[in-house]
Amino acid sequence: MGIILFLSSVISPLRTYLIGNWDTSEDLPLHLCGISAFILSILPFLKNKGFLFDFVFYTGIIGGIMGILTPQMSSYDGSIYVYFVFYVRHNLIFIMPIFFLRNLGLKLSKKSMLKTFIILNILLVFIMPFNFYIGGNYMYLAEPPKVNNPLVIGEWPYYVMWFEVFVIILLIMLYGLSKISFRRNFS
């Protein structure tokens, strides 16, 4: 699974560049799913996984579910390749953290929610001005996604503030599920 994510993280941008559709404002791997996919692609090969696992457990599951339920393929060129890679990647970033929890004995640290929330906000501090500089919309911080997403309330900047609220709620829910359902039902 890690190799598939890694190859797609390298091949997809290269393919986009080679066919002449590369756009810095859209094609860098700076969406949360791209960041999660890259981390998950190398995580199986790292000795100390704990810190990164804490982060991608939440971002992978939340991002994977949101990507599958409310897909936005901004770089869709009409090919089956882009469609296929989009769904494979989003399914893997959803499945891999659960697989790691169930099969590799990885556990969330007690402060995993707080660490993840802080990291997300640090990313926000860097990616938001970068978006404005290059005209991008990474992590949907410049404008709301162009899909019918129930977690998008209002226009900029209000929906970003609501994202913060929803992230806290989802972090708490996933932490609780990690302690109850994922272990008990899959063990």
Radius of gyration: 16 Å
Along the chain, the helix and strand elements come as: HHHHHHHH
**Which structural category fits the helices and strands?**
mainly alpha
Mean pLDDT: 88
User: Can you tell me the number of structural domains?
Assistant: 1
Q: DSSP helix count?
A: 8
Sheet of most strands: none
Strand content: under 5%
Distance between the termini: 20 Å
- How many E strands? 0
Point out poorly predicted stretches: none
Helix coverage percent: 55-70%
Spatial shape? globular
Structure commentary:
- It is a single chain.
- Helix 4 crosses helix 6.
- The protein has 187 residues and is mostly helical.
- It is built from eight helices and no strands.
